[in-house]
Specification:
heterodimer, A: alpha+beta, 5 helices, B: alpha/beta, Pectate Lyase C-like, two-stranded parallel sheet, 16% helix, elongated
């Protein structure tokens, strides 16, 4: 009986994504930023997503975008087919980019790709959100 | 009284669609081989709906969701699909001439063998779409994201492609203008050796 109970608990824990504050990648990102006040950019992707590939290989590596992102953002990626997704972070399209502050508050969500300059404009706007 | 009769007669004459077909489309979210000309299907969710062989010419589809829908062999000639979502839908061998689809989502859509002459597809998301054998005479793609899509056996030289995102888009056995070819190469598209740039 006890074994069945523990097995049920384990099954529930496996399915439960948990809060963003308990997410290992998020915790690591916050640890990595130390005293700096950076924003976590959590990007949902899939393997078969040309938009995601475009964002990761072109936009994030655009000279101006890369410089700004290195200074103010930390990127974490979650493959929606392979990773546990935190509670409260549902998605309606891929890629979805969530911008989260150090304390785990969602500041903004962007769905879909953007060219480097408009994306940089969005990053600046999001950084300005209190 | 005469005025009322005239209004009724005119109303019957002017409404192009079949009222039973429209009721079916709205209630069951699909309608095969139906007459939906000029019908109002705007701002509704028709995800997974089967409309193949239907006539949706000049229909109002603004802001509606047709994810994974079947529009094979349909006519959407002159339809207004601004902001509509056709994610992974099939629009093969369809008449899409003059369709207004500014800002629409055509990600993963199959346009194989369709006629998109003079269609307005500006500012649209068209990632990973398939345009094999499609007619693209004066199709307006300006400012659209067409990355990862396939253009095979098309004549594109009259299509408007200014400021389109063409990253990893494949062009094969296609006729393009020199400006389009230069833009495609700059955008890191794959331009096969059999592409004519003139």
């Amino acid at each position: 009986m006890l074994r069945v109970f523990f097995l049920s608990c384990a099954a529930v824990l496996t399915l439960w994504g948990g809060t963003i504050q308990n997410d290992e990648q998020f915790k690591q990102a916050v640890f990595q930023m130390g005293k700096e006040n950076k924003i976590v950019l959590m990007m949902y992707t899939t393997d078969d997503c040309p938009e995601c590939a475009y964002m990761k290989s072109k936009v994030f590596h655009d000279k101006e975008v890369e410089l700004y992102m290195n200074r103010h953002f930390i990127v974490i990626e979650k493959n929606v087919h392979k990773s546990k997704l935190p509670d409260g972070y549902d998605f309606f399209g891929i890629p979805t980019m969530f911008f989260i502050d150090k304390a785990g508050n969602k500041k903004e969500t962007i769905i879909g790709s953007k060219r480097p300059q408009p994306f940089l404009g969005e990053l600046r706007r999001i950084r300005g959100i209190k | 009284m005469r005025g009322l009769l005239l209004a009724i007669v005119l109303g019957i004459t002017l409404s192009a669609y079949d009222a039973i077909h429209l009721k079916k489309a709205l209630e069951e979210k699909e309608c095969i081989g139906c007459d939906l000309r000029d019908a109002n299907l705007s701002r509704r969710d028709f995800s997974g709906g089967d409309f193949h062989g239907s006539d949706l010419s000049k229909a109002d589809l603004r802001g509606s969701i047709f994810e994974m829908g079947d529009f094979n062999g349909c006519s959407l000639r002159g339809a207004n699909a601004e902001g509509a979502v056709f994610w992974k839908a099939t629009l093969e061998r369809a008449d899409l001439r003059g369709m207004h689809a500014k800002g629409a989502n055509f990600k993963g859509v199959h346009f194989n063998g369709s006629d998109l002459s003079r269609a307005d597809i500006r500012d649209a998301k068209v990632w990973k779409a398939d345009f094999t054998d499609a007619i693209l005479r004066k199709t307006d793609f300006r400012n659209s994201e067409i990355g990862g899509s396939k253009f095979i056996r098309n004549d594109l030289h009259t299509a408007k492609m200014k400021n389109t995102l063409l990253w990893q888009t494949r062009f094969s056995d296609v006729v393009m203008s020199k400006t389009q070819c230069a833009h495609a190469k700059k955008e890191e598209a794959t331009v096969d050796a059999n592409v004519t740039c003139r």
